[in-house]
Write a structure and sequence with these properties.
Layout: E1 13-18, H1 21-30, E2 35-40, E3 46-50, E4 56-61, E5 76-79, H2 83-92, E6 96-106, E7 114-122, E8 128-135
Parallel strand pairs: 1-4, 5-8
Antiparallel strand pairs: 2-3, 3-4, 6-7, 7-8
Amino acid sequence: MMNPIPKEPSLHHVGMTSYHFDETVKFYQEGLGFTIKHIWGRDQRVYMMDMGDGSCIEVFEGGGEDVPASGRWLHVALRTDDIHASYNRALDAGGKPKLAPTFADILEAQPKPVYMYFAYVVGFDGEEIEFIQEVEGPEA
């Protein structure tokens, strides 16, 4: 019997092609804290990497094509409770800094303003990874 469809959709996975597969898998493990959930593939490796809450990044081993300048997605955003720790961990694992932790207040957001810290790092294939730490109110 199939499970019922959830009332609210949630992220299952985002797929990406990696042209630096081993470095990317290591970066996602060490820099982002992901774990390998599944491995498959015949001609090319495919790793399903769990973000820790059941949401995953599916990493396909690239080959034969030119490496794109900015990865295969615009960016993927990850929730965090500690923006600085997440950002620094990613840098320590070889990520490249794009934007250090920054406060944003999106006052025009509906139905109420959004307050958050965000930061960006770039992975080994040029993919952008954003960290988001939502907070209750304006920066102190």
